Known about the structure:
66% helix
Amino acid sequence: MHNADCTFDIVRNSLPALQTEPCASDIMDTKLLLLLAPIVILEFVMKGIALFNLRKQEHTRGPKLLWAILILLTTAIGWICYFAVGQTDEA
Length: 91
């Protein structure tokens, strides 16, 4: 018996006699999670590095508060833009 739609998960999980192999959506959820986890971790690490670097920078192109908001409230675009154009070469 192949249960692809998992419509009776609650009943199946509550009665041991009805338990079968994991349904296709459960397997896909696990694969998706394993695929996305490194990307999410990389995103948070790069945000942290960008904010740490922003804090250490004496001069930036534009206000530091604006860069901090851009880094925090956007996805990778914020920290990529900061590293690409936000830093200055001034000492």
